[in-house]
From TrEMBL:
GO terms for molecular function: damaged DNA binding; DNA-directed DNA polymerase activity; magnesium ion binding. It is found in: Cytoplasm. The gene is dinB. This is DNA polymerase IV. PROSITE patterns: UMUC. It comes from Rhodospirillum rubrum (strain ATCC 11170 / ATH 1.1.1 / DSM 467 / LMG 4362 / NCIMB 8255 / S1). Its main location: cytoplasm.
Length: 421
């Protein structure tokens, strides 16, 4: 099979043009269509698409999902709003400057979670080798399973897209390749309603003109370091020997080299665990004084503690996140003596981290998170003598990145997340 009609799902043998069976123009053609089996599926403008589905009068209007009037970021800009330059993760005020006629709707997380579960259920019918990355995206390994020989992976994927459209009323974009990195890159290339196929042979030429930040793991800091070496495009990276990148960047250098040539891992981990739980808030105005900043820690720690308890987890590392007035993100970590799920312990450690950062700088956002997660049964062993605060063996090294770095700006106020690819 080299061609597939996305509407009637039949094999298309003609080298170009519409589907001879149903006349649809939505035909995917690629020589590797029958062979490639690692996919990435990502819903299009997810929150906005759900809102448009539920209120058809919004369908042809620019829509931004976010808190109106707030200082936070837009969670989603629909594709109409994107024509005006508005983007997901852009500050709300900027989105509305670019697209003043946009309708703004506050997010309804419970609804998006329910839709996410429905999409996931459809994907699970194609394969149980499914690794969700967030509410609206997942990797799928279609190399085995009951349908593998009866149906090529591409047919399973087109079926998923068609069912999501017809049964749930939103659209997805699909990337099909031989590894995770290329599959994710592919799903992003022809949004919305894309179905993009890339094989490893064509990857180097396709990647060469792209900026290095398209590579997984290249945030603002790595991008700067690469730029200092004159490495701006993926093609520039392809020109460097692996040994050179390894010497300069260690293990990351090896991964950069592999990804630049389109190589990457294939392993899909269906049972990937939650790696961190966090909550954050954007202030009405920038704050610099410790008492003002610290006021947010209690409620944030409560939210984190509740999420830990809900998931029967405890955390051994407290993470404080701050965003400076000029949008730089700082993260600081404190390892606890014992894992905890108690809000006051989390807040105490976060406060000690905060004390070191309050030197007059102005911050627009603060977040508290827990990493190094363990089963809840390991939390808070009884302290026989006193309820003294736990010893925080603070890890001195923090991470500092600019916006657009490996850490995404305020995606949602509370998140349970897994690490990247
Ligand atoms: P994305 O898949 O990054 O974006 P999207 O689905 O809105 O648009 P695209 O078509 O480009 O995939 O994120 C999925 C959802 O996650 C998005 O609808 C809302 C939420 N989100 C946030 O809450 N904050 C953010 O900063 C971003 C980027 C996304
Ligand atoms: Mg999406």
């Amino acid at each position: 099979m080299t061609g597939l009609c996305r509407d009637c799902l039949c094999e298309v043998l003609t080298p170009s043009g519409c589907c001879p069976g149903c006349g649809s123009a939505r035909v995917v053609r690629h020589p590797g269509l029958a062979l490639l089996d690692i996919a990435h599926i990502d819903c299009d403008a997810f929150y906005a698409s759900v809102e448009k589905r539920d209120n058809p009068s919004l369908r042809d209007r620019p829509l931004i999902v976010g808190h109106p009037g707030g200082r936070g970021v837009a969670t989603t800009a629909c594709y109409i709003a994107r024509r005006f330059g508005a983007r997901s993760a852009m500050p709300m005020f900027k989105c509305l400057e670019l697209c003043p006629e946009a309708v703004v709707i506050p997010p309804d997380m419970a609804k998006y979670k329910a839709v996410s579960a429905q999409v996931r259920a459809i994907m699970l019918e194609a394969t149980h080798r499914l690794e969700p990355l967030s509410l609206d995206e997942a990797y799928l390994d279609l190399s085995e399973g009951e349908h593998r020989f009866a149906r090529p992976p591409a047919v399973s994927l087109a079926t998923i897209a068609r069912r999501v459209e017809r049964e749930i009323g939103i659209t997805v974009s699909i990337g099909l390749s031989s590894n995770r990195f290329l599959a994710k890159l592919a799903s992003d290339m022809n949004k919305p309603q894309g179905f993009t196929v890339i094989d490893e042979a064509e990857a180097p030429a396709l990647l060469a003109p792209m900026p290095v930040k398209r590579l997984h793991g290249v945030g603002a800091a790595t991008e700067r370091r690469l730029a200092e070496l004159g490495l701006h495009t993926i093609g520039d990276l392809q020109g460097r020997p692996e040994a050179d990148l390894l010497a300069r960047f260690g293990k990351i250098g090896r991964a950069l080299h592999a990804h630049a040539w389109g190589r990457g891992g294939r392993t899909i981990s269906p049972d990937r665990e939650t790696k961190s739980i966090s909550a954050e808030t954007t202030f009405e105005r920038d704050l610099s004084r410790l008492p003002d900043l610290a006021r947010a820690l209690g409620p944030l720690s409560e939210r984190v503690a509740r999420a830990l308890t809900r998931n029967a987890l405890a955390g051994a590392t407290v993470v404080l996140k701050l965003k400076t007035h000029d949008f730089r993100i700082l993260t600081r970590h404190a390892r606890l003596g014992d894992p905890t799920a108690r809000a006051e312990v989390i807040a105490g450690a976060a406060r000690r981290l905060l004390e070191r950062e309050t030197d007059g700088r102005r911050f627009r956002l603060i977040g508290v998170g827990m990493a190094d997660l363990r089963p809840g049964s390991e939390a808070d062993p009884p302290d026989l003598f006193a309820r003294s605060p736990p010893t925080a063996r603070d890890a001195p090294a923090g991470k500092e990145t600019g916006d657009g770095g490996s850490e995404s700006p305020q995606r949602t106020a509370s998140t349970a997340s897994t690490s990247g690819m």
